[in-house]
Design a protein that fits this description.
- The complex is a heterodimer of chains A (287) and B (344).
- Chain A is of the alpha/beta class and 287 residues long.
- Helix content of chain A is 32%, strand content 9%.
- Chain A has two domains: 137 residues, no CATH class; 111 residues, no CATH class.
- Chain A is built from ten helices and five strands.
- The N and C termini of chain A lie far apart (51 Å).
- Chain B is α+β, with helices and mostly antiparallel strands.
- Chain B has eleven helices and twelve strands.
- In chain B, the strands form two sheets. In chain B, strands 3-2-6-7-8-9-1-10 form an eight-stranded mixed beta sheet. In chain B, strands 5-4-12-11 form a four-stranded antiparallel beta sheet, with no helix packed on it.
- Chain B starts with a strand and ends in an 8-residue tail after the last helix.
- The chains are: A alpha/beta (287), B alpha+beta (344).
- Bound molecules: iron/sulfur cluster (5 copies).
- One iron/sulfur cluster binds next to helix 10 of chain B.
């Protein structure tokens, strides 16, 4: 714990970063994102099982915001978003000061203690508790028992459904959507300055929260995430209507991996799948 | 006046009768959500439950609703009015922080323009409130002149007693009429059922008048640069809030020459909310948009309608993806207000 504070303090004192996007605890002991600008601010920095947010979501705000590196505290899963944003030319590695933290899982429900029953789905299949690269690394990772990946079971069940049954499943889920766009706003990969739902001349996607409007929104969001979702599960956590959004994005990541041998956010040098074309690209799985 | 009590079983029988009389009966369920009940057994009344994640406003002010439909007919356009469900709405088990929202938003819906859509539902409704035995770090009804026993907005109010009974308080003439109509389900209160009291008092956090004075004088204050800095600009807070009432009006095509004009929820945390056709956006960053949220709730609405646009239910904070806590923000303002004349 102190190690992380120390690293951040030094980084700010020695101007290795002009500010650091990190976590702090508020007076109710709730862990939340904040920006540490001074070495004194760094005193507040913490990391724990409640550090759920993917802080890479704040990058677009600092585009062209001045000279000097942006510091960020990242878990291994968050780093995938950083890498993906570098691959998609949204940010440069050289403009970042990355403080990795070893992670031993984060909660699914932030109102409860971390436990086997209260672990994010992503932690259940996380493959690297230590970020693969960083400028500084803090914290010892503690082993934790990985609970069952219950989402995989649900995915298998949905795959076995007929298309009518699937339509029924998703209609019931999407009907709940209230178009608050929290799923979009928390997503580090949703950085378009103008989202397609905001394009009103003509209006491509109904803004109404009707069956049609909700389907269009949720499906277009899923499509735009095809092979781009890095699996932080923030969309699902943020959704106030408890729609299992990552079923779609995770599935598409799995397709990208099985059909193109590609996983987004895993390599700084590999071009992004969605932005490259190869004559050997398969299309036989498109039905 | 006679004092009454009612059993949970009888409340459900009332709900059944209401359903049979084609009323829309809205109550909390085992999932702790407000739902239009299909049958009375779905109703679960738990005064100790946390406020539902979404408020019940959608039953008065739906997330989307058609204003009219249009269809092109050669060189003319035919307009059609949507069929409105005129059924009576009965809410059972509203917490004080839910029920109080209706008279508050009714003011804006009846200001310069009378919103028939809202009024037709609200006028034809009956709100059965219930005292609340829950409290967490996000609740602050007490600070806004309300309390877990407050009956504002309720027509009938229930106070939990032992053995699944409730003491019944008639709050409005509408409520009295209702009790009269369903008299056979109510029993005289012989004082035999022990009343279930709240375990603890809700703490006080701030002095609203001080907060208001500070807001009156500090539109430009560096506090705003960081208050909403981490806000992501979704509308979770506004859409789950019982008192947020902003909407947008859109035309939507359906087929080649037909469509509808709809009224949809909107929120000031969206960047598009204040974007002008010229491209200019007076609230061009999230910090300004967050200032709007706080100011509208705790200042502008008070200036205009003599009400705080907040009931202290804490929903917005419980659901915020970045844990921005409206109570802590107001508490910070309260502590700044010690020197409220220093405009920075
Ligand atoms: S779609 Fe969801 S899981 Fe994927 S990157 Fe975005 S927020 Fe994370
Ligand atoms: S967060 Fe959930 S309710 Fe909000 S727009 Fe996304 S899917 Fe819909
Ligand atoms: S305060 Fe929280 S819920 Fe509201 S817009 Fe900001 S991030 Fe979303
Ligand atoms: S602003 Fe927050 S606390 Fe106030 S009424 Fe709305 S949801 Fe409840
Ligand atoms: S706080 Fe914002 S969304 Fe809510 S009523 Fe006020 S302006 Fe509308």
């Amino acid at each position: 714990m102190n190690e992380l504070k120390q690293i951040c303090k030094e980084a700010l004192t020695e101007k290795k970063a002009r500010f650091i996007i990190a976590y702090r605890e508020d007076k109710n002991k709730k862990t939340k994102p904040f920006i540490a600008r001074t070495p004194e601010d760094a005193e507040q920095i913490i990391f724990n099982h409640q550090a759920v947010n993917n802080l890479a979501v704040y990058f677009p705000r600092f585009k062209n915001s001045g000279e000097g590196k942006i510091g960020i505290v990242v878990k291994s899963c968050d780093l995938k978003a950083v890498t993906a944003l570098i691959q998609e030319n949204q940010i440069k590695r050289d403009d970042l000061f990355i403080i990795g933290v070893n992670c031993s899982g984060v909660v699914r429900d932030t109102t409860m203690e971390f436990s086997n029953d209260n672990t994010q789905i992503k932690c259940k299949y996380c493959q690297a508790k230590t970020p693969p690269y960083y400028d500084e690394l803090a914290e010892e990772s503690k082993e934790f028992e990985m609970p069952d990946d219950d989402q995989a079971e649900l995915m298998a069940r949905i795959e076995k459904m007929s298309s009518d049954e699937r339509l029924e499943f998703w209609s019931a889920e999407f009907e709940k959507c209230i178009k608050c766009y929290a799923c979009r706003q928390v997503c580090p990969m949703c950085y378009c300055e103008k989202c397609i739902v905001e394009k009103s001349e003509p209006q491509w996607i109904d803004t109404s929260s009707t069956a049609r409007g909700n389907f269009s929104w949720n499906i277009i969001r899923a499509f735009h995430m095809a092979g781009r979702c890095i699996g932080c599960h923030e969309c699902e956590r943020a959704c106030p209507m408890d729609i299992p959004l990552t079923l779609l994005t995770r599935k598409m990541g799995m397709v990208a991996s099985s059909e193109f041998g590609y996983r987004h956010g895993m390599s700084l040098t590999e071009p992004a799948l969605i932005g490259t074309y190869s004559t050997s690209d398969k299309e036989d799985f498109i039905k | 006046m006679e004092e009454y009590i009612v059993s949970l079983d009888n409340l459900k029988k009332i709900a059944d009768e209401l359903l049979n009389n084609h009323c829309r009966v809205i109550g909390t369920t085992s999932e702790n959500k407000f739902k239009e009940l299909n049958y009375a057994e779905e109703l679960v009344l738990n005064p100790g439950a946390v406020p539902t994640s979404s408020s019940f406003k959608e039953f008065f002010f739906p997330k989307t609703e058609p204003l009219f439909f249009y269809k092109q007919n050669h060189s003319n356009v035919d307009l059609f009015n949507p069929i409105q469900d005129k059924s009576k709405i009965v809410i059972i088990g509203a917490k004080p922080c839910d029920a109080a929202s209706l008279p508050i938003i009714s003011k804006v819906f009846n200001w310069d323009y009378k919103d028939d859509l809202f009024n037709s539902r609200y006028d034809n409704s009956l709100i059965i409130g219930m005292s609340c035995h829950y409290s967490d770090e996000f609740c602050f009804c007490n600070d806004l002149g309300s309390s877990p026993e407050n009956m504002k907005g309720s027509d009938v109010f229930l106070k939990p007693l032992a053995d699944n009974y409730f003491k019944v308080v008639s709050v409005t003439p509408k409520g009295a009429e209702f009790i009269n109509e369903y008299q056979k389900y109510f029993e005289k209160d012989l004082g035999k059922n022990k009343s279930l009291e709240r375990k603890e008092e809700n703490p006080k956090h701030f002095d609203y008048d001080k907060v208001k004075t500070w807001l009156d004088n500090n539109f430009e204050n560096k506090f705003w640069d960081t208050a909403g800095e981490m806000c992501l600009g979704c509308a979770q807070c506004a859409f789950v809030c019982p008192t947020c009432h902003c909407f947008d009006i859109v035309d939507e095509q359906n087929g080649s020459c037909a469509g509808r004009r709809a009224k949809n929820w909107d929120a000031c945390q969206f960047s598009l909310f204040t974007k002008h056709a010229s491209g200019h956006n007076p609230r061009d960053n999230q910090e300004k948009r967050y200032r709007q949220r706080i100011s509208h709730k705790f200042k502008y609405y008070m200036d205009k309608f003599d009400e705080v646009l907040c009931t202290g239910c804490g929903r917005c904070s419980r659901g915020c993806p970045v844990s921005l806590d409206i109570l802590q923000i107001v508490e910070e303002i309260n502590s700044l207000s010690g020197n409220s004349n220093s405009i920075q």
